[in-house]
Amino acid sequence: MRRTAALVLLGMLTARSVLADNCTEPVADSSCLALLGKSLDGLSALGKEYLNMCYSLIVDYAEIPDLPGLVLDTASNGQRSYDGWILDPVMTVDMVQAGMVEPLDTYIAADASLNWPDFIRYFRQVSSVYNGTVTGMPLAGKVSTLYYRKDVFAMANLSPPSTWDEFLTIARAMNGSDFNADGVPDYSICWQVINCLEDTVVFSQLLTPMIQALGTKSGWMFDPVSMTPLVNNEAMLKALSLYKELLSYTVPLPRGAQCMLAHMPFLQGS
Ligand SMILES: *[C@@H]1O[C@H](CO)[C@@H](O)[C@H](O)[C@H]1NC(C)=O
Ligand SMILES: *[C@@H]1O[C@H](CO)[C@@H](O)[C@H](O)[C@H]1NC(C)=O
Ligand SMILES: *[C@@H]1O[C@H](CO)[C@@H](O)[C@H](O)[C@H]1NC(C)=O
């Protein structure tokens, strides 16, 4: 059921920034609509920059499910307009098609202080781009990284793996070692996969290098031209069997445990 813009607006929170001490009055108000969430570090950094330039920034926050309708409603009925939006990039398609988004390529090319090539390539070339045009600036994003105990690798005279097969060999060989010297054998992998979002992240990363022989143009799960599923193949079987064995070396989360941003068993040395 489609909610009306008026109802949704009632559900929004508005935050107005306080001007910096050295500004007597705002140069101009800027307003933006942001999704209400945890990853707002980018927004608070942007807010500070705005304040230093004596702009005041008015931010309306809305819940994720309300945002798509709200954004497109503001474009079509003009009851409330924004200078910018802080959204998940999946919304870009509808917004570009509604003519709401200014292409940013020429601004980026003209702004040497931005250091655009320094942005992580995925954010710069994929999530910010629609139909060959940069349509948004990355403000916050997550990347996953593998980290390892340097002391354990040095003691076992191992180098960090550079393929998943090397990773498996090491995980298999090290599993059951006592990493924190408490007399109890430990698991060798500290992922939080069961019931945590890491499950899909880890599995995608096992599968991707096997199905994207030509890079991203090979497609992901579907052939980009024919939309034929790309899952019924040897790569998927290999990734599943790799994953299955890796899970047998992965420390199970205790019952009722929370998914954490940090890997507690790793931090605790086991
Ligand atoms: C106000 O002060 C901040 C912090 O010292 C500075 O970065 C900014 O440029 C100043 N703004 C103006 C308009 O003078
Ligand atoms: C992509 O951009 C081209 C022009 O550069 C335009 O003709 C085309 O309609 C656009 N396609 C979509 C799906 O927006
Ligand atoms: C990995 O090590 C843990 C801890 O010793 C053990 O419980 C588990 O059975 C081991 N996994 C395999 C597949 O041997």
Automatic annotation (TrEMBL):
Pfam families: SBP_bac_1 (PF01547). InterPro entries: Bact_solute-bd_prot1, SBP. Transmembrane segments: none annotated. Keywords: Signal. Residues 1-20 form the signal peptide. Coiled coil: none annotated. This is Uncharacterized protein. It comes from Haematococcus lacustris.
